[in-house]
Design brief:
Helix content is 34%, strand content 20%. By secondary structure, it is an alpha/beta fold. A 6-stranded parallel β-sheet has the order 3-2-1-7-8-9, sandwiched between helices. It has a 3-stranded antiparallel β-sheet with strand order 5-4-6. Helix 5 runs parallel beside helix 9 (216-228) and helix 7 crosses helix 8 (183-189). The structure holds adenosine-5-diphosphoribose.
């Protein structure tokens, strides 16, 4: 049975109004990564980090899936083989569009994690320092988001899926952050047909046999149509 593995990045949610990281005026132009997306930054100033994720959680809660998310949900529904989305995004727009087979390798804004005991629960809209873990009561609640220097989630499963993929597509990602930026090469070496769909060539564009450039809401539905054509 054919398997399509799709890596998504911030670019697929850009037209839903959620900021990307490295575009002009992106999140990393507004905040220093070391202050808001590292364990050291959280230890130094938990209030600043909670503030950063509270704002993104609030924004993501009112964002709507766009035609690119909806097209991938249609692909999962109508494709005869298996479709897996591995997303770097922490928003819930793939699920909101109807995708069920989704792995969040960088965690989710909707999740909270206890830094003391590892317990996970649904994050409240606003989190603050000293927030207690419902399981161990330690004041050690943090966003369940993978920070720089931490290991992304589900990596063993993801590498297995990449080895079995017939088609690997990367959508809306700049190819700057590993290990996701190596997935194109991993899939290519395993014999997959590799496709990049992005606003502009990514840093790893040379890893891809097929490329489509433009707005995700245009190029992703068109690509899904070709995959589903009889
Ligand atoms: N349609 C398609 N692609 C777009 C659109 C759009 N409307 N808007 C932006 N893009 C593309 C940009 O050209 C860029 O290549 O999306 C990509 C976004 O790149 P980044 O901002 O680097 O986001 P991403 O690749 O997801 O970052 C990966 O870095 O900071 C960490 O954890 C964070 O998950 C994130 C990871």
């Amino acid at each position: 049975m054919e398997k399509i593995v799709i890596l998504t990045g911030a670019g697929i949610s850009a037209e839903s109004g959620l900021g990307t990281f490295r575009d002009e005026g992106g999140l990393w132009a507004q905040h220093r990564i070391e202050d808001v997306a590292t364990p050291e930054g959280f230890a130094r100033n938990p209030a600043l980090v909670h503030e950063f994720y509270n704002a993104r959680r609030q924004q993501a809660a009112t964002a709507q899936p766009n035609p690119a998310h909806t097209a991938l949900a249609r692909l999962e529904r109508d494709f005869t083989g298996e479709v897996l989305i591995v997303t770097q995004n922490v928003d819930g727009l793939h699920e909101a569009a109807g995708s069920a087979n989704v792995l969040h390798m960088h965690g989710t804004l909707a999740g909270a994690l206890c830094a003391a005991c590892g317990h996970r629960w649904s994050a409240p809209m606003q989190m603050a320092p000293g927030h207690e873990c419902p399981a161990c009561q330690a004041p050690a609640a943090r966003p369940d988001v993978v920070w720089f220097g931490e290991m992304p989630y589900f990596m063993d499963k993801i590498w297995d899926h990449l080895r079995e993929a017939d088609i690997f597509a990367a959508i809306g990602t700049s190819g700057n952050v590993y290990p996701a930026a190596a997935f194109g090469q991993d899939a290519y070496r395993a014999g997959a047909h590799t496709v990049e769909l992005n606003l502009e060539p990514s840093a790893t564009v040379s890893d891809f046999a097929e490329t489509h450039f433009g707005q995700a809401t245009q190029i992703v539905p068109a690509w899904v149509d070709t995959l589903l054509a009889p």
